[in-house]
Design a protein that fits this description.
By secondary structure, the chain is an alpha/beta fold. The protein has two domains: about 1-100 and about 240-275, 3-Layer(aba) Sandwich (Rossmann fold), CATH 3.40.50.10860; about 100-240, NAD(P)-binding Rossmann-like Domain (Rossmann fold, 3-Layer(aba) Sandwich). The protein has eleven helices and twelve strands. It has helices at about 15-25, 40-50, 75-80, 100-110, 115-120, 130-140, 155-160, 170-175, 225-230, 240-255, 260-275; strands spanning about 1-5, 30-35, 55-60, 75, 85-90, 95, 120-125, 145-150, 165-170, 185, 210-215, 235. A six-stranded mixed sheet has the order 2-1-3-5-6-4. The protein is globular. It binds 2'-monophosphoadenosine-5'-diphosphate. 2'-monophosphoadenosine-5'-diphosphate (ATR) binds next to helix 6.
Amino acid sequence: MKLAVIGYPIRHSKSPYMHNIWLEALNIEGQYEAIEVSPEQLEHQVKVLKEEEYSGFNVTIPHKESIIQYLDEVDHSAEVLGAVNTVVIKNGKCTGYNTDGQGFLQSLSAVRTEVDIKQAQILLLGAGGAAKGIAGALASFGVRKISIANRTPSKAEALVKAQKVPGEGLDLQTAQERLNEFDIVINTTSSGMYPNVDAAPVDSSFMKKGALAADIIYNPLRTQFLKQAESAEADTLNGIGMFVWQGALAFEKWTLQQPDTADMINKMTALMKQE
Ligand code: ATR
């Protein structure tokens, strides 16, 4: 079985490491490789992957949206989102999916019960591609309300309106002032990502004790956002779980087998500690 991730640049991707361990652990003959594909090469590359009988591939920055025009079918939720991170090739046909939002929910379910999540006051920081997937997954899961705060508040408003549950769009300052109202605060912005490790979208030291701060960043493992939340005695969740689960959900689509996510979260955590 041939699998790949396509992106630009792609050399820092940890997906080959993860999927090759799973292929081997499950005795599936095959290989998962990273292929650097520029925007100009994208259409041609999809044809090549079909011709060379790949079983599927992941799609990362900057192709998650532009890939859609080259696919034969797109799953409903990925279509609504306008972004694809997983493609299955079957009988020469490419079908697009998005496992990012569901991956986040799976990661969240390791630290909060279904009831906790459904009853929580939830604040999403950011209104970009990652926020879209997570907001959609939370709404489908059945949360009552989603508050979204963004540096550009109009984008937060638009994302709130696109959800099938009620919500409110906020600016970051208002979110900061009201931080102690929320049970779960999720950072989907890139603020705090390596190399800008001292940055954070809000000062999470004002969070409620016992609330949860979840970051989708995993480099570094402990972002400034998570460190400040710890100082408020909030629980924390880093981005490793979401990364592993989005991969596991893609892997299941290609191989129809369930990889060991708990073991991979340990391995990825150890790997990122070395970086
Ligand atoms: P992704 O696909 O990773 O979500 P994106 O679509 O570019 O990436 O979205 C990035 C998000 O991070 C946006 O919400 C962005 O805010 P704007 O909409 O105002 O641009 C947010 N973001 C990026 N850098 C930030 C910073 N330094 N402080 C606060 N928010 C930031």
